[in-house]
Amino acid sequence: MFQPPVFSPPGGSGTFNPGFMVGLPIMPGDDYEMSGVKTWITQLGTSRVIQAALYSDNAYTMQGGTLLGSTAGLTPVLGVNQMDFAAPVALTKNTLYWMCFNVTGGSGNLRQLNMDFPRNNYMYFTQSNTTLPSTAPTCTPGTGGYQFNWWAF
Q1: Given this model, what pLDDT does residue 148 score?
Q2: What band does 12 get if pLDDT is binned at 50, 70 and 90?
Q3: Number of domains into which the chain is organized
Q4: Are 84 and 35 in contact (CB under 8 A)?
Q5: Range of 116's domain?
Q6: Of 60, 79, 111, 121, whose CB count within 10 A is highest?
Q7: For residue 18, what is the DSSP state?
Q8: CA–CA separation, 2 vs 9, rounded Å?
């Protein structure tokens, strides 16, 4: 599995803000075929839907990147949630990609277990439903907030 730094439960948790597709940069060290992602949800909110997507990089930014794969919307449960891509995505070693999460619908906090320290390099764009753009629109860089944790498979 390809994943961010390993954590030991119980770790901290980060709150997903609904209406945004938030992406972290990833760079596999080997060629890799990605079939989906898993995430550990620690608080559900009400009627929330989560979705994962993978965008190509565009000169070290998510903006203008091509949608390579995405999952259907999923109503999460407490604990580990698995989201499968419609088809596996071939990743090339030493190539930058953007692993993204989207939260839509419902109300209240949706929280995910994370690494207990701030991640300082992420981007986001407004996205209020699960119909994703084939090219990432104008993106805003973010810094200093706790970010999500996931495991690619």
Answers
A1: 58
A2: very low
A3: 1
A4: yes
A5: 13-128+136-152
A6: 111
A7: T
A8: 18
